[in-house]
Amino acid sequence: MRKFSIIAVLLLIYVSLSYAQFAPVGTAGAQFLQIPLGARPVGMGEAFTAYVSDILSIYWNPAGLVDLKRWEISTSYVPYFESITYQSAAYAYNFGNVGTVGIHFSSLGTDNMDVTTVYQQEGTGEVFSCRDVVGGISYARLLTNWFSVGLNAKFLQENYWTYTSSGWALDLGTLYRSHFRSLRLGMSILNFGPELKFSDTYIDYSDEQKEKGFGTYALPMTFRVGISMDLFKRELHHLSGALDGVHPVDNLETLNLGFEYWYSNILALRTGYKVNSDEGGFSAGAGFKVSYGAAVAKLDYAFNDLGRLGIVHRVSLGIGF
């Protein structure tokens, strides 16, 4: 136990101190994969790698899926800025000693936009839209009573007008549970996969209108390490805290801090902050949970401040049994 705690603390210190002066922005594509999903983790400042325990684990650290009682389903909706919307749905079933199996699907899309060219800058009369989708299967299993692993295998596709790019990626997660104040240590690697390339060709107007093929681009692979624990727990009141160190391949590292407070296991209040975030960093949210026998229904809301991009709201609905 002491060894795991020391390792986690050292990793978090390393991530928090290793801010580079140069952010390699623009070196990876498929950026929609980095938009956080689920109102609960977003309300906690995206400090969720070790705090995972429900169906939303599928997006952050699939090793947390083993904590499902039996089955759970969740849907999320994000009205993003500039008329962009993001929807997602996930389902998982716990087969006991065999492990937990899940499926998930997400879609990011825009409204129709006018097609313009160098010579027709007011529009050609045509319209186009963009649509990014990702879906896959998940598997998680306890290796011991205190340690679990999880894996996502997913297929993704980006569609911009007539251009399409498709590929696959993997998410791998681990989760360690201690017996001290529910201390949990988690690590995950997200969006690990081969480079992608758009189909067809395009006209390069800056080079004598030559027809060229697209180059390859990397996926936005992200390494996350986190720690969480109970800070205060009584019959009606329960306060937990979580801390994540996040290292993306195409940006600076961030340190995410989040808190979740439950009253009577019915009403939840959440808040969090991302240190070294590009825009904004503050987030907050609330949740409501109602139980009827073994069935549980959850409604969660969160907003996060994206600075000059404005406030983004999220809503998630979950049902479990």
Task: Explain this structure.
- By secondary structure, this protein is mainly β.
- The protein has a single domain, classed as Porin (Beta Barrel), CATH 2.40.160.
- 8% of the residues lie in helices and 53% in strands.
- It is built from three helices and 20 strands.
- It has a 14-stranded antiparallel beta barrel with strand order 1-2-3-6-7-8-9-14-15-16-17-18-19-20.
- Strand 8 and strand 9 form a beta hairpin.
- It starts with a helix and ends with a strand.
Map the helices and strands.
Blueprint: H1 2-17, H2 39-43, H3 57-60, E1 71-79, E2 85-94, E3 100-109, E4 113-114, E5 127-128, E6 130-142, E7 147-160, E8 163-177, E9 184-192, E10 196-197, E11 201-204, E12 210-213, E13 216-217, E14 222-233, E15 237-248, E16 254-263, E17 267-275, E18 282-292, E19 295-305, E20 311-320
Antiparallel strand pairs: 1-2, 1-20, 2-3, 3-6, 4-5, 6-7, 7-8, 8-9, 9-14, 10-13, 11-12, 14-15, 15-16, 16-17, 17-18, 18-19, 19-20
Return the string of H and E elements.
HHHEEEEEEEEEEEEEEEEEEEE
Rg (C-alpha, Å): 21 Å
Secondary-structure-based class equals mainly beta
Q: Which CATH architecture would you pick?
A: Beta Barrel
Instruction: Give the mean pLDDT.
Output: 90
Query: What composes the largest sheet?
Result: 14 strands, antiparallel, barrel
Number of strands: 20
Could you give me the name of the CATH homologous superfamily? Outer membrane protein transport protein (OMPP1/FadL/TodX)
* CATH C-level: Mainly Beta
Helical coverage, percent range:
under 10%
What is the number of helices? 3
Q: In what order do the strands lie side by side in the largest sheet? A: 1-2-3-6-7-8-9-14-15-16-17-18-19-20
Which percent range describes the beta-strand content?
over 45%
Structural domain count: 1
Under CATH, the topology can be stated as Porin
Low-confidence sequence ranges: 14-20
The 3D shape can be described as globular
Task: Give the distance, in angstroms, between the N- and C-terminal Cα atoms.
Answer: 32 Å
